[in-house]
Design brief:
The chain is of the alpha+beta class and about 300 residues long. It folds into 2 domains: about 220 residues, Alpha-lytic protease prodomain-like; about 80 residues, Alpha-Beta Plaits, CATH 3.30.70.1350. Helices cover about 65% and strands about 10% of the residues. The chain contains 8 helices and 4 strands; from the N terminus they run βαααααααββαβ.
Length: about 300
Amino acid sequence: MPESVNSPNPAPTDVRHGRLVRIAGAVSVGVALGLTALKAWAWIRTDSLGVAASLADSALDVVSSGANFAAILYAQRPPDEDHRFGHASAEDLAALAQSALILISAVLIGGRSIQRLLEPAPLQAAPEGLAAMVLAILVTGALVLFQRQVVKKTGSLVVAADSLHYVSDLLPALGAILALGIIGLGGPGWVDPAVGLLAAGILLRSVWGVGGEALSGLMDRELPEEDLERVKALCAGDPVLRGWHDLKTRRSGGRRFIQIHIELDGALSLHDAHERARSLKAAILRIWPDADVIVHMDPAEAAPAVS
């Protein structure tokens, strides 16, 4: 009877990745709270409407980052009777919701920029408010860099979406300071709305990538072709395998799920066949340590064609 080799308990790498994602979520909430307090002080000192708007945005960041952190904690819960494949799809849901919020922000920034182009208005900046905004930019920039490193190591979509959300705060603030500097040196007034439009365009492009990937995860879309080719290359490089079929893959949150049937000589002992399956699974896990891998064994004479 055909046998299967399933993934073991979470590997050390998987545990480390989970811890990194949790730390990133907690840091994001802490930064949002700190920036809200900083901008509240700047608003009290300056009574600036621009700082007040930025304060409102940071207050929303507290809610958004808190929701993302809750999604991270839920997504990392172990499988249970109702969720046999775990809860990682919560990351995709959170990333999709975050992408929708950033899309709205990009549209509002773009609309405001077009209005400013059509109806120019002088820029004003109180020194204390400007200093607070510069500090907020430095803190936000450090957070974004940290989140990007976490995404690079873990592939977490919810951290990627949260990072993009902070970029949506960072770009307009950087653009405003850049515009103030250029205009202060005698540059044209249209620089401010032009920078705003550029920021909106960058955000829209980023939302397309993060939101599209989150939607693909929710729809159980196959892994990219290059990932499939890496699995097939591992199979082709094993001289004992007579073939393979029914390669099925998907991604949920930052985790890959891979299932494959391998074809072996029917005369092999169960022990030897099992070792071949374990060897292939180990090779796949060396590429993606946090993947959930199932290798199913079939006798070659009863197996269908390679697929």
